[in-house]
Write a structure and sequence with these properties.
Number of domains: 2
Shape: globular
Number of strands: 15
Strand order of the largest sheet: 3-2-1-6-10-8
Structural class: alpha/beta
Distance between the termini: 33 Å
Largest sheet: 6 strands, mixed
CATH topology of the largest domain: Spore Coat Polysaccharide Biosynthesis Protein SpsA, Chain A
CATH architecture of the largest domain: Alpha-Beta Complex
Helix content: 10-25%
Radius of gyration: 18 Å
Number of helices: 6
Strand content: 25-35%
């Protein structure tokens, strides 16, 4: 039984996602001791890489998606099932900061696939669960997705492909904006479809996905090669005044929403 991690990293005009993937892969190797495959294009691969991936899959990027005035190359994630060389795969966003071996627990919950529904936002105790739309259901997050090569998992990714190719239709059906394609929405709807429109809790990871949200900043307080202690600063707006709140974290995995913050941490 083979296990490994799959990353998608296509550079945009503003962000070097391949470089982010290299950094994340080094941390995966250290904390999880797993091989890493990257899906990318020839344009993104540097002439002098700082890391040697176990496998590089060259794919043609779909650049027909924009977010915050930049090309967001996040389409084609449904190809993960086809591109993975492993029996058990951990599909991660490259902006997920691995600081422990906790992700190995994901495999314990993967009968077919497993992902996060519940989230936490560091320094924001009342962070709310996101919904597909005001009248719809909670979002499942594609940030961390463990899966095995099973018939049901193959159906999940086939549904994600169908949803991507017919995104306007599903946006109209579930009452959300089609302006920006999101893998989270595709995964959420696909999960409903493969389960006969029944919400199957057995595919949900039983701990929160930790987000570092947009108004939260991180700085390295103490750093060895991998075991990093971070200072966290949150700009809290209270009664019209901005108040800075501080804490420190260590040995905690988290997803960095702001790519500039992630690059700064690198």
């Amino acid at each position: 039984m083979t296990r490994g991690v799959l990353l998608f990293g296509f550079n945009s005009p503003k962000v070097n996602y391949y470089e982010m993937a290299e950094y994340t892969a080094k941390r995966i190797n250290h904390f999880l001791d797993l091989p890493v495959t990257i899906v990318t294009d020839s344009f993104s691969v540097p002439k002098k890489p700082t890391y040697k991936f176990d496998n590089i899959v060259i794919s043609k990027p779909d650049k027909d998606n924009q977010f915050r005035n930049d090309i967001w190359i996040n389409k084609g994630r449904y190809q993960a099932y086809e591109y993975s060389l492993y029996d058990e795969t951990l599909l991660l966003d490259v902006d997920y900061m691995v600081n422990s071996d906790r992700l190995l627990k994901v495999f314990d919950f993967c009968k077919d696939y497993a992902c996060h529904q519940n989230i936490a936002q560091l320094m924001i105790p009342k962070g709310e669960q996101e919904y597909v739309s005001r009248l719809s259901f909670p979002v499942l997050w594609a940030t961390v997705l463990g899966f095995r090569k099973t018939e049901k998992t193959e159906q999940l990714f086939a549904c994600m492909k169908m949803i991507q190719k017919n995104y306007n239709h599903y946006a109209n059906l579930y009452n959300f904006s089609p302006d920006v394609y999101r893998n989270d929405f595709a995964l959420t709807i696909a999960h409903r479809l493969v389960n006969g429109h029944y919400f199957d809790q057995t595919n949900i990871l039983p701990w929160n996905l930790m987000h570092i949200w947009l108004k939260t900043n991180l700085f390295v307080e103490k750093k060895t090669k991998f075991n990093t202690k971070y200072t966290v600063i949150y700009d809290h707006n209270k009664n019209g005044k901005v108040k800075k709140e501080y804490t420190t974290i260590q040995d905690m995995d988290f997803h960095v929403i702001n790519k500039d913050v992630f690059l700064e941490l690198m």
